[in-house]
Amino acid sequence: MANKSFNPRKRHSSEGITKSEHKRNRVEPRSRLKINGSMLQKKTPRLSPALFRDDCEIRHKQIHELLRYAALGKEYNAPQASWCHIHHQKHLKGVVVVLFQELSQLYFYKFYMHFRHLRRLFKHRFRLPPPPSDFISSLVGTDRAAPTNTMTQNSDSYHGCSPGLADLPGASAIAAKVLSLHPIIQKYGVQKQGLTRYLLTAEELTSQDYPLTGSLDTAHFVSSGCVAQVTDSSPLFGLDCEMCLTDKGSELTWISLVDADGQCIMDELVKPDNIILNYMTRFSGITKEILLPVKTKLKDVQERIKTLLPPDAVLVGHSLCKDLQALQMIHTNVIDTSLLFAGEFGRRFRLKFLAQVVLGREIQCEDVLGHNPSEDAKATLNLAQYFILHGPTKVAQLNLDGIFRTMNRPNGTMPLQEDTASIPLDQVLHLKNMIPRKSALPAKEASLLESLHSSGRKVTYISKLDSSAIKDARIADQPFHHIQCISDEEVLERACSVVPASPFSVLEFCHMKMSSESIEQMKAKVKAKFADMMTVFAGPFKKNVCIKTVKRVFLCCGPIHSLGVVSETFQPFICVKYCVLEAAQLALESLNETCVDGSHIKVQRLLTQKTLECEDLIREMEDDQENEGVLYVSGFREPLTEEFLQQEFSHLQDIKAILLPKNETVRKPARHCYLKFGSMQSAVQAAEHIREHGELRSRKALTASHLHRWLEEMETSVPLEQFPFPERISQGKNLEALVKNVDRKIKRLFKTFERNTLCLVLFPGKNSASGPLPGFGFMAIKEGS
User: Which residue range or ranges hold the Exonuclease domain (predicted)?
Assistant: First the structure.
């Protein structure tokens, strides 16, 4: 499903929005503080995820990005996750990750009604890919960090000097020894070298998520065409991009390219292809008014870059991977200044900091709205040129880590460039006390757990004794406080007492394992239940009923999977199987007791064991906060495009996103869409307008895109009828008790969390003999006391 966020226009023909929903939609007042008689708003953290889209799958490394920013924030140069922004991160009280092993996306749909507290507490939900063998390591980043045992060296190696350091003028022997352990010296040595020495290696390109040929994520990316052999005389080009947040994630809005002489050869504003959720004006300087007249698109920029860059061009940037991702281009000859100037424990300095300390230049000034990409591109270029010209020893002597710590002390000030250039080498001695004896600095970026540990914060991991993660050396060797328990109930009790005082906690619960046959049985039952819910029967019709006429009428409610005549009845009935649940419900609400093809018909669902609770389930899905402010619209005569929908709904107020579904099983352009509004009140007003104007039909949304995709992909190898009926009953009772227990645990845990605690509940999924089971995630910040 494609997703758009703009001002749309028509919709609703049924009465699916109640007074209780109006109450729920009222915005609670923000916390206020009274200072000197004045009322001031107190900032509270909140989430802005981009989940209203067709591809609502969040990868494990993206979860790690979110956790890293939530725990470390800007203070430790952690970047915002591209798929979810955390506003006012520094006001977070803590971060909690709760894992329920063996559970998957399947469980949530099968026991939707039983997860009462989980649905009430967690509005933001997303699909996860099947888990890797190192699932927990992928969340906390230890799958990328170098294992501890690969970093250790013997004492003699620790105290050895790199050649040439001991002979530096004015350097004491001990200072030279300590300087030899500087991460820049460890990586590049002490001698000046050509630019080819500072290019990212293939391993670094992979570990830093640079777009590479052959990856599924970059199948649609464009190559820069710069494939010639790079030499030390190859030209350098500084690149910087500014992005905005759209319903598909970060997208390019401004690009600047600077040549080796510092001349800006490209400075273009770019209009994103998708609906903009946030212009990120504070950082980009871009506003709606600025982009309004812009016609340049991403493909235009890609073509121009390909013409500007020579075959052996080397791109220089600060965290350049993000710029190339935004450009959707593949270019592997790069110098990344965030890695080139990396400090202790893999610390990455901000470009503003490096420009001031190394170049003596002020960029990204506070009194200027947004960053200037040409200014930033030139700064990154000059930083790389400085490093190549002066060599790693000169850069190590700048003592960037010491200056950074000074800035972050209370009342700390930024030393001027002329002062930092003359810092005595003996000041580097502070490194000696910070580096563990008999251990060298890790070559790769420190893991999230290591970063938290180095910042003096305690990380708590609570699990059962037989947890598989404990057997993983990348987890077992990490600096955290591990509390081992003998049962899940003990994990719960310890968590309730320990987590509120811990800034970062991981809780792991282990539940019973199911056989592949039982999993297949559950999949078959869930699929059959939704299939029955999306099927309606209409009639009675006359003997000579026109099927085309009936189909045309029922298509107004939504996409039809199949349509057939029921021949066992005295008068013909039509069985209509829809592709989405909203279409079936809309047909029941708007076509029942109407005249179709000259017949007065009833529209109804077939009452079966699987649909006995259908009405209750529909009500629960309508009231689910995940669907709050979302409308389903159908009845378009022509296949839809995103541009048409933007124009069609441009007059409606407070539209945040438009979702244009793409059903791979039907393989036809969609004639229905979903509209997301900023409030329920706006959705109600839009629904009334659609009902009163035009031929479109609308109702409150019931389903999310993660369910659509799951139903499309799910296949069962054994028909439901072949499963032994007694086994289904006994297995179902056990699973029902398990799910209720999980929901109870979540309620109790959430109650113990402090206000402003970020919590992620993860069902990891499973790789079973019957096929992979995708995981499922829930996310919320506790708002109440």
Answer: 235-393
Whether 73 contacts 734, CB under 8 Å: no
Rounded distance between C-alpha atoms, residue 634 and residue 699, angstroms: 9
Q: Which domain holds residue 347?
A: 198-390+411-422
Number of domains comprising the chain: 1
Report the run of H or E that residue 449 belongs to, with start and end. helix 448-454
Residue 352: inside a domain: yes
Helix 725-752 to helix 516-533 angle (10° resolution) is: 90
Average pLDDT for consecutive 10-residue bins of the chain (785 residues)? Answer: 42 39 43 46 82 79 92 88 91 95 92 94 93 81 48 32 42 66 90 94 89 82 93 95 87 94 93 89 85 93 95 95 94 95 87 91 71 90 94 91 74 39 38 37 58 78 74 55 89 92 91 74 88 94 92 94 88 93 95 93 87 88 92 90 84 86 66 91 90 87 87 57 46 79 95 95 84 91 81
Q: Which two tokens stand for residue 30?
A: 């923000």
* Per-residue exposure over 239-254, b if at least 16 CB sit within 10 Å of its own CB, e if not: bbbbbbbbbbbbbbbb
Q: Are strands 32-35 and 697-700 parallel, antiparallel or unpaired?
A: unpaired
- Whether residue 344 is contained in a domain is answered as yes
Identity of residue 614:
C
Which own/partner pairs from 175-178 qualify as long-range (CB within 8 Å, at least 24 positions apart)? 175/425, 175/426, 175/428, 175/429, 176/425, 178/428, 178/429, 178/431, 178/432, 178/435
In the chain, the N- to C-terminal Cα span, in Å, equals 38
Nearest Cα to 9, choosing from 683, 744, 730? Answer: 683
Tokens matching residue 760: 């992620």
Look up the CATH number of the domain holding residue 205: 3.30.420.10
Q: Is residue 258 part of a domain?
A: yes
The torsion region of residue 438 among left (phi > 0), alpha (psi -120 to 50) and beta comes to: left
Q: Which two tokens stand for residue 1?
A: 């499903």
